[in-house]
Structure formats: C-alpha cells, structure tokens
Design goal:
With about 375 residues, the chain is of the alpha+beta class. The chain is built from 10 helices and 6 strands. It has a 6-stranded antiparallel beta sheet with strand order 1-2-3-4-5-6, with no helix packed on it. It is elongated, with a radius of gyration of 26 Å. The protein starts with a helix and ends with a helix.
C-alpha cells in the first residue's frame, strides 16, 4: 500500500508538471508575437542587432506572462485531472476510500503556492525587468518608450504644494509623467480660492517643483503676461510621479503600499494602484479557484462520456470569469466601486460557486 505522503507527492507533481507546461507554451507564443513586433519596429528604426531585440523581448516577457498564471493553472489542472481519469487512477483512489477533496488537496496547495510565488518573487522580478526593458527600448529605438496621449482631453493631475493645491492638464506625457507637453495649470491658494492660470509649452518635474517653460500667466485681477519660466511648487517627487503616471505593471508588489501613500498625499487618484495591489493580494486565492473550477468539469469518468462537452464548458466558464473580473477591475479603476470589492467579489464568487458544484457532485 502506498503511503498518503507518496500519493500526495505524486499528485502534486502531476499538477505542477501540467501547469508549468501550459505556462511555458503560452509564454513561448507571447515571446514570438512580441519578437515579431520588435522586428517590425526595428525595420523603421534602422540596423538593430538581432541579439539586442531578443534580450529586449525576454525582458518584456515576465510582465506579459505574469497574468497568464491563473489561465495556466486552469488549463493545466484540467489536463492533469483528465490524465488521471483516463489512466483510471482517480477511480482507484475513490475505490481506496479517498474523496475528491483529498486528491484535489495537492493541486490546491500547488496552486496556492504558485500564487504566493507570483506575488512575492515573480512580480518584483517582472517589474524590474519591465523597467529595464523600457529604458532599453528608449535607447534602442532612439525615442521615449513611454510617450502617449491619454484620450482627447489628455492627462489631468491634481496635486498639493506648499502654497496650496493646483490642477495640471497636459496633452502629452513623456518619461512616465516627468515631462509634460501643452500644459495648463490652475493654481489655488491655501484657502482653496482660484489664484492663477498658467499655460506653457512644456513642463518638467524637478525636486520640489514643476518647471513650466514658455509660460503665459493669467492671475486674478491682472492681465495675462509671458514669464518664460514659471516654477510651480509640489510635494511630488520624480520617482513617485514616474511610478504613478507610468504603467502599474512596472511597479512591484513591495513598492505599491508606499506608492499609494504618496499618491494620496499628493492628491493623485490611487484607484488603479489600489486595484493592482488587491489583485496581487488575491492572486493565490484566484489560483486556488482555478483548480476548483477545473475539478467541476474534469472528474467525470471517461467511460461515462461527455468529457469534451464538460471541458469546453469549463473553458467557457473560465473565459467568462476572466471577462467578468476585467470588467470589475475597470469599475474599480474608475472609482465606481471600492478597489477591494472590485477585485475580491469575482474571486470569492467563483470559489463559492465551484465549491457548491463539487459538493453537489460528491455528496448529492
């Protein structure tokens, strides 16, 4: 008779092998797609060494694949359970007195452990690699890798300063918000009363102030006049605004709490940062939920038939959940729901639903 520890180790290895194989396959596809895109960009930028493009694609890969883990766990768990069922090993374990919860436990532990690994180790590594890739892309293609226009109305930033609050609008941002173009600043005094409007061609964030160039200042009860350079005090630092206006996937799990605190101190909306933090905190439970979802469609015996239908149902359910989670995340980013609710409600919902289905399947 095999010991319980031996069986658990065997099952855990089966789950881990299937999950890692799925993750590596998907990561390979993403790498090839991104590499082809880099080749397309390099054709416009001149002669760029192939090795440099490969390194750049590899640096970008961890950030792109970080969000694949729940999907890989879903597909890998379905594959592992179907393999065990096809070999009649699940039937043997049932005959030996093991319940579904007992032979699912190794898979649940593996998924939860992978979720912890993802937020504590993989996420910081992915964030670091992403930041290096952006710098390398800027050097390689001879332009800023992070130059964008945020919709028709540009970027809006509300901030605190020693002299009061101010609101800055910019049509374009460069270097993750350090440099702004086509800038308008609305300045208020310490009592919250409007004091002046400043229009500038560009702005650069220095330590403790914004440096607005080619400025026109229109103060209350005074005619507008050109001042050339206008210094606007702020509590923001270049490091904080880079992370705040930059992509959240370039910020690691360990940096997010401090970044949220500084963003709120500067009166910057921290919704997207809080949502990202809650997403990372919920990832182990999301990974666990994917194993439960896989189990609801993979425990039927091959002899009973209908396996293909069950697997397709499970995949559709998984994609439906990911779509619902993305919609909920966008609601949280928009401030229409608390960040914790936008993230945790879909995850807890799928855990409760799948647990109920499994209890019904096992106990009737």
């Amino acid at each position: 008779m095999l010991s319980r520890k031996t069986i658990d180790t065997y099952l855990a290895r089966r789950f881990l092998t299937a999950i890692v194989a799925t993750f590596v396959l998907c990561a390979g596809l993403i790498f090839m797609i991104d590499f082809v895109e880099l080749l397309r960009q390099s054709s416009k930028a001149g002669d760029i060494p192939l090795v440099k493009l490969i390194v750049l694609a590899l640096l970008r890969l961890p950030a792109y694949t970080e969000f694949l883990l729940p999907f890989a766990i879903l597909v890998g768990s379905i594959a592992a359970l179907l393999w065990l069922s096809r070999k009649s090993e699940i039937a043997v374990m049932r005959a030996g007195g093991m319940s579904a919860w007992q032979y699912l436990r190794p898979g649940l532990l593996v998924a939860f452990g992978l979720g912890l690994f993802a937020i504590l180790i993989y996420n910081p590594l992915a964030a670091t690699a992403r930041a290096k890739s952006e710098q390398m892309a800027a050097e390689t293609f001879g332009r800023d890798a992070k130059l964008f226009r945020s919709g028709a109305e540009g970027v809006w930033l509300r901030q605190n300063g020693p002299d009061g609050e101010s609101v800055i609008s910019a049509l374009y941002t460069e270097k993750k918000g350090i440099n702004l173009r086509i800038v308008t600043a609305f300045i208020f005094d310490r009592q919250g009363r409007f004091a002046a409007r400043v229009d500038a061609q560009s702005a650069e964030l220095k330590k403790g102030y914004w440096k607005l160039k080619n400025s026109v200042v229109a103060a209350v009860n005074q005619p507008a006049g050109e001042v050339g350079v206008y210094l606007l005090p702020t509590h923001l630092t270049p490091e904080r605004v880079r992370e705040t206006l930059g992509n959240v996937i370039s910020v690691s799990f360990w940096q997010l709490p401090n970044l949220i605190e500084h963003a709120e101190k500067a009166n910057i909306s921290s919704n997207h940062l809080r949502v990202q933090y809650e997403l990372l905190l919920s990832r182990p439970w999301l990974c666990l939920a994917m194993v439960l979802l896989a189990a609801t469609v993979s425990l039927r015996s091959f002899r009973s038939g209908g396996i293909q239908t069950m697997v397709i149902t499970g995949m559709i359910g998984g994609f439906g959940f990911f779509l619902m989670a993305e919609v909920s995340r966008q609601i949280g980013n928009a401030g229409l729901a608390p960040p914790w609710a936008a993230v945790w409600i879909p995850t807890l919902a799928v855990i409760f639903v799948t647990t109920t289905v499994l209890l019904h399947q096992e106990d009737g």
